[in-house]
Amino acid sequence: VNGNVHEYVFYRCSKRKGTSCKQSFVRSTELEKQVLKKLEEVEIPRDFSEWALGLLRMETDRDKVTRDQMLSKFQNDYNKCLQRIDTLKDMRMNREIDAEEFAVRKTEVETEKDGIQSSINKLDKRVSERLEEFEEKFSFAETAKARFEKNTENKRTLLISLGTNFTLHNKELKFDWEEVMAQVRTASKEAKKLHKAFEPIK
Asked: What are the distances in angstroms from CA 142 to CA 122, 139, 154?
């Protein structure tokens, strides 16, 4: 009416899973408001983040002691499997067992050995990776909302860091929270409750 030109951006279903989707368009500004609200749900003050990660590092140190004990046990069991395989080879060479029995018993021990090796690999990585993942997610939670508001990087990248299976239903953004991010979200709620509890009375 006044001669000004306005540009609007809309999002809709990509229909990758079929063409029968009846969901309507949603304006980008409205979608960004919803994303901002989701980012706010995981936002954590730096001082709380440092405190929580400090506790997690202490817990990780305790877990490492348990991990080392379990690794020692697994390694001992693994070495016993190697000894049993050597014994079977000696028995076969001495003709104490025939080729068929040797093959069956050797397969059983090797299956057990492979299972132990898999447990060792998982246990060795689990403790350190868990701490690294939480450090990464807490760092993200501290600044993601501010970065989204300032538009300093790809907003889509910030959004997909929150979870998977993104959908729009009745113009509302829905998705499954990523496992660690869901825990960060819970921590954010607790941090906000604590902050509110200790706010000075006005």
From this structure: 30, 5, 17
Specify whether the CB–CB gap between 39 and 106 falls below 8 A. Answer: no
First to last CA, the chain: 48
C-alpha distance from residue 192 to each of 46, 50, 196, 197 (Å): 12, 15, 6, 9
The residue behind tokens 């760092």 is 139
Mean predicted lDDT score pLDDT of the chain: 83
Which pair of structure tokens corresponds to residue 2? Answer: 């006044």
> DSSP labels for 80-146?
HHHHHHHHHHHHHHTTSS-HHHHHHHHHHHHHHHHHHHHHHHHHHHHHHHHHHHHHHHHHHHHHHHH
Q: Which residues, including other chains, have CB under 8 Å from residue 95's CB and lie 6 or more apart?
A: none
Q: What are the Cα distances from residue 112, in Å, to 70, 78, 89, 105, 148?
A: 16, 8, 17, 11, 50
| 78: CB partners within 8 A, 6+ apart | 113, 116, 117, 120
Round to whole Å and give the CA distance between 151 and 134. Answer: 25
pLDDT digits (tens, 9 = 90+) for 24-75: 677 888 989 999 999 999 998 888 888 888 888 888 788 778 888 888 999 9
Query: Which residue is listed with tokens 């697994």?
Result: 74
